[in-house]
Amino acid sequence: MRDDDLIALIITLVIGVVALAIYIGLIVLGVSIARRKNRSPHWMWFAVHPLGLLITLIVMAALSPLKLCPQCAQKSPMHARLCGFCGYNYEAPAAFAPQHAPGVYVPPPRY
């Protein structure tokens, strides 16, 4: 094997590894976008094909986020006033939230 062939092989391998790293990085980006918006990250299985990756990334970026119901843990649109599954009123807890004295530790609510 000549030196020129060896250099070409190394350059090809480096380019391939960099391309694979970018591809996997975009898949991880899509999964993080989906989780941040409370969407299912399983849509990223379309990323097996490069065109599917591109389409899925665009769709995930365009979708609005969902909110979780604290009562039944189902996902509802962000603008919903009531949970479509159990009827939980999202606006009521904010109106009747207990007031605490400043400087008093209040544990976070459990969901």
Please list the strands of the largest sheet in the order they lie side by side.
Answer: 1-2
Residues in helix, %: 40-55%
Coarse morphology: elongated
Radius of gyration: 23 Å
Tell me the β content.
Answer: 5-15%
| Arithmetic mean of pLDDT | 86
Largest sheet: 2 strands, antiparallel
Indicate the structural class. Answer: mainly alpha
Q: Please, how many domains? A: 2
Give a short synopsis of this structure.
This protein has helices spanning 3-36, 50-62, 92-95; strands at 66-68, 75-77. By secondary structure, it is mostly helical.
Provide the fold topology.
Elements: H1 3-36, H2 50-62, E1 66-68, E2 75-77, H3 92-95
Antiparallel strand pairs: 1-2
Helix pairs in contact: 1-2
What does this structure look like?
This protein is mainly α. The chain folds into two domains: 63 residues, no CATH class; 34 residues, no CATH class. The chain contains three helices and two strands; from the N terminus they run ααββα. It has a two-stranded antiparallel sheet. A hairpin with a 6-residue loop joins β1 and β2. α1 packs parallel to α2. The radius of gyration is 23 Å and the shape is elongated. The model has no long low-confidence stretch (mean pLDDT 86).
